[in-house]
Amino acid sequence: MNKSPKRILYPFLGDTFGGSHHSALELLDSLTPDVFEGVVGLHRKGALAHELERRSIAYETLPGAPIEPQRGMLSNLARAPNTLRFSRFLSQQRIELVHAHDGRSCITWSLPAALAGLPFLWHQRTTYQPSTTTALAMRLADHILCNSQFAKSTLPPNAQKKAITIYNPVTTVQADRVKSRHAVVAALRLPDDDDTSIILAAGTLSRQKRPTLFIEAAAQLASAGGQSMHFVWVGADRDGMRDVLESRALELGIADQVHLHGFVTNVGEWIAGSNVLVAPGVDDAFGRTLVEAAQIGTPFVATDSGGHSELKNLGLEGSYVRPDDAVALADAIASTLRSRAPPLSATLRDLFSPQAHAAAVTAIYRQCG
User: What per-residue confidence (pLDDT) applies to 20?
Assistant: First the structure.
């Protein structure tokens, strides 16, 4: 008699779509269907729901609001009844394991999984942000999967004991750089000529990603004159920074050269259509766009910090600069504009492959019985 596949819940908030979601969906695509069945659950309809629908991936609506750690312990007590609803949902859906991929989902689903007697996998894709709620929820995890050694190093000592590093999967991006260039300049309404350089940053507009530093470096480059440069940031405005950044660009006299384009789903095409990718953030846990740029052939400049430093030590070739140094960032961008991107090594291509990621994760699934 054939055994039915193990049903695994992947719960998400659903209101955003970023690198962690890319990685989770790549894992979902790599599962052996007669062994593991991934069940995607969303608390809210939003950017992730749109992407799932675009890919024709079914999802369940989760029965209640998630925990919001920033609201504090007392505020979240009002949502305590949801814990029992979530636990019943797991039973009703015949879930056998819960694998959460972002911080709020991890915090929300660790207790329901415990109440249902199910193994719980906590995927740590950012640096650890200490809080009582997070610390208590993390104690309930059976396994903690970290997307870099750096991310693992930020965990509390008791959590590190049950943590393992499994690098994010990065599917090889198939992008025609000429077609991508045409698409990007058309989206920005710029001249499609060789005299225009596009310097791209990709990620949420958050303080940790350092978009203000990007603007300051842009001003340094613009003041040097020479070829036409346009500085583009693609990503959602998470910290309400757009108005401040636009004001700063206006003060520096580069408002017509700065483009805060907002959220996009086709980040690979934007990277392929740009002259240089810039990653100015500090303490990024991984650095997915750097790997994508290396796959595509777009040179990059990144801060020598956190997960970026780990990628550098693993052999990812690019230009790495001191964190929070606008002059050094600008100098590196100017130099990189005149260089070619070294190819991604076969070793790193294999290390970051969806197949390697899926093999490592499903080995943990099998340990869970």
Answer: 86
Contact of 314 with 257, CB cutoff 8 Å = no
How many other CB atoms sit within 10 Å of the CB of residue 273?
27
Sign (positive or negative) of CA dihedral 161, 143, 352, 298: negative
Q: What are phi and psi of 25, to 5 degrees?
A: -70, -35
What are the 10-residue block averages of pLDDT along the chain, 369 residues in total?
85 89 93 94 93 94 83 58 93 97 94 96 95 91 98 96 96 84 94 90 95 97 86 93 96 96 92 97 96 95 98 98 98 93 93 96 93
CA distance 36 to 365: 9
State the amino acid at position 60 in one-letter form: E
Angle at CA 9, nearest 5°, toward 6 and 14? 155
Per DSSP (E only), the strands in the chain are 6-12, 36-42, 60-61, 97-100, 120-124, 143-146, 163-165, 196-202, 228-234, 258-262, 276-279, 300-303, 319-321
Could you tell me the CA-to-CA distances from 251 to 69, 201, 215, 216, 258 in Å, in that order? Answer: 36, 21, 11, 11, 12
Closest listed residue to residue 214, CA positions, set 327, 326, 338, 331: 326
* Amino acid at position 241, single letter: M
Nearest in space to 348 (alpha carbons), one of 277, 288, 273, 276: 288
CB burial of 292-327 (b: ≥16 within 10 Å; e: otherwise) equals bbbbbbbbbbbbebbbbbbbbeeebbbbbbebebbe
